[in-house]
Amino acid sequence: MPAAVRFGVNYTPSQGWFHHWLDFDLDAVRADLDSVSALGLDHIRVFPLWPYFQPDRALIRPRAVEDLVRLVDAAGERGLDVNVDGLQGHLSSFDFLPAWTRTWHRRNLFTDPEVLDGQAAYLRTLAAALADRPNFLGMTLGNEVNQFSAGPHPDPDRATADQIDAWLERMLAACEKGAPGKLHLHAEYDATWYQDDMPFTPAQAARRGALTAVHSWVFNGTAQRHGPTSVASEHHAAYLIELSKAWAEEPHRPVWLQEVGAPAPLVPAEHAAAFTEATVANALDCPDLWGITWWCSHDVSRDLADFPELEYSLGLLTNDRRPKDLARALSRAARDHSYAPAPRTTALTVPADPAARTRCAPGGDVFEAFFRLTADGARPTTVLDTRAADQDHLVARALTEVVTPDQVLRTPRGGTRS
Fold it and tell me: Cross-referenced InterPro entries, in alphabetical order (predicted)?
């Protein structure tokens, strides 16, 4: 019997958003966590803002670290485990980078030796401060830090895939040194899987760290192209889970759906609960799923200016901590412990060449073929084209049928694949 899937939420404080670290209010945090715990969730993911915690390369503020520990302890009192993201990094359309990496002190985030030293010290310090907390799951290096490494970022820190690989290895090692044996990982937005020139690669995502993390957002062209109630939109998270498995070396490497949400207006407010229910049900049909962590806990307050409109309404709970219908949908799933999906035995080939990733993106032939198969009830997964004839690999993953995108797309709907 598979282990139960973890259900959690990305914690967005109801008061002051992530700026709450500037004037940390433990009572407000406790009230937020009470409202999260009441949904029956078992973990949260939290986001120290890097410039607030390490404003100088040689200064990691003890008071900020202490506040983080207090938050983790408060979560533990409510039965919530905690994953901590370190290098924030990028959140809700805003970049938060310390001044010692920008403008007059401009240094590459992924290659400059002094920046690397500072980052490693920071991650190690946070991990060490929490290492003895039983409810501390581990560190995520940062939130979607790949967006700093290539376009469409307006001022990217360019790096090669080899340089990114070295960066990942060093930063994960720093987390491990601080908190040995914890669940340390990295997490990127879907350009890792979809963008040809992204130096963060699918192989890195599926092989480095304790597990693979995917972030699913249908505003990436999926909902625009297919609509909010389409097979593609409601199975997009499941697609990323299964797409990641093509690059994994371990046949049953766990995958964490670390971010997924219902972004308005592409997912209309009146459809958000149904979208949540469908997305979660389809993700739960994926073997080897570690957990689902919704984005996000609480709405952003309308007292704060300049956020993109969709950011104000992504919460499971309102800004005054009242649960929405989508919160109830997630809560029902979290209380159901019947996770036991059948193996997925049909594999769609995907290009191993990272310069061909757009084929996996919305509109690409891999993407469209996957959802054709899904609509036909095939429950597909994926396999690299370089492994499609590797019988040992196929057997290890219980794969009995391998199809190419062109085979799927040239077959009439409901027809037999050859």
Answer: GH
